């Protein structure tokens, strides 16, 4: 009877091993990042410091410094998803991925809207300038 596992006791962690389903988000720089939360982050690359504030990744404010900011945006694109996972508490990996997708979608909507207005203005303004 002593060799049976107690179903009412949580599994014991051994040296930061991540058990299936354990949410390590928001646990700081030593938190394990699941494979689904890694990869290129378009939201961080495109939004820069705005994304950094929204994801509690304060080092991203370096994007505001001229010349160095562009290098920081590339770095955010490469490591942004991992930093966001470690710096902010998320409900699940699915929730995290959905929020990161929305950052990209909003950028596309904003830029597409501005481009659409610009194209429309380029067509309409010459018509009334006669």
Tell me what the structure shows.
Helix content is 52%, strand content 0%. The chain has 130 residues and is mainly alpha-helical. The chain has a domain at 40-128. The termini are far apart. Residues 14-19 have low confidence and may be disordered.
Biggest sheet record = none
The rough form would be described as elongated
Helix content estimate: 40-55%
Low-pLDDT sequence parts: 14-19
* Percent of residues in beta strands: under 5%
**Rounded Rg:** 22 Å
Overall structural class, as computed from helix and strand content, comes to: mainly alpha
Overall average pLDDT: 88
Topology:
Layout: H1 42-47, H2 49-54, H3 68-87, H4 93-128
List keywords for this structure.
130 residues, mainly alpha, elongated
Task: Give a nutshell description of this structure.
This protein is mainly α. The chain contains four helices and no strands. The chain is 52% helix and 0% strand.
């Amino acid at each position: 009877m002593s060799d049976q596992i107690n179903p009412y006791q949580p599994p014991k962690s051994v040296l930061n091993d991540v058990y299936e389903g354990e949410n390590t988000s928001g646990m700081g720089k030593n938190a394990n990042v699941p494979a689904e939360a890694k990869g290129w982050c378009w939201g961080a690359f495109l939004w820069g410091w705005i994304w950094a504030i929204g994801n509690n990744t304060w080092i991203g404010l370096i994007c505001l410094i001229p010349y160095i900011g562009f290098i920081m945006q590339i770095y955010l694109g490469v490591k942004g998803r991992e930093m966001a996972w470690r710096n902010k508490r998320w409900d699940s990996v699915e929730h995290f991925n959905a929020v990161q997708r929305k950052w990209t979608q909003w950028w596309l909507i904003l830029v597409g809207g501005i481009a659409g207005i610009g194209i429309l203005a380029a067509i309409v303004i010459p018509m009334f300038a006669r």
